[in-house]
Structures are given as structure tokens and as C-alpha cells.
Amino acid sequence: MNTSNPYIGEITIGERYQAVIPKKVREIARKMKAGVKATVVAIDERTVIVTVKPKDWVKETYGMHKKIWQGIDATEYIQTLRSEWVQNRHQ
User: Fold this and answer.
1) Distance between CA 26 and CA 82 in Å, rounded?
2) pLDDT tens for residues 1-34?
3) Could you tell me the superkingdom of the organism this chain comes from (predicted)?
4) pTM of the prediction?
5) Most CB within 10 Å of its CB: which of 1, 2, 55, 89?
6) In the chain, domain spans
């Protein structure tokens, strides 16, 4: 996507306040399908942000930070943190 010129197109708001999302936007936001829930945030009187909500947060976030934890034993890491907390509490 060309972020230097994010203009994609226009929508028309119907009498029932329904809007049709342009095909280019739907192609970029691949998870935007009929029936999907979305969050709308009003920035000001003229600007809104629409974010597609995942159907299943577990599936959506599974393995999200696995690269960050590569080569680190999570159990050992937690035990180290806990011992640091105990030491800091007694100081």
C-alpha cells in the first residue's frame, strides 16, 4: 500500500446511514467481510477510524510474539523476575 498518498476513494452514506466500503479498501483490509464486526472510533467531527474485530482473539493472537521469546526459557525467566521482586521487597 502506498502510505504517502493514502486516498483510496469515496463512500456515500445512505438514508439509513449505511455505507458501502469501496472494493480497494476491502482488498487492503482482507478480513473485512460481510457480517464481520468492526470498531468505530471518532477522532473528531469529520474523522473516524474503522477497525475490523477478529472473530476469535485466541486464533488471531496465537504465536504473536514467538520470535521475541526464541531461545528464552519462559519458566526460568519468570523465576528470575520473581526472585528480583522478592529481593526488592526486602530492601
Assistant:
1) 46
2) 556 667 788 888 899 998 888 888 888 888 788 8
3) Bacteria
4) 0.49
5) 55
6) 23-89
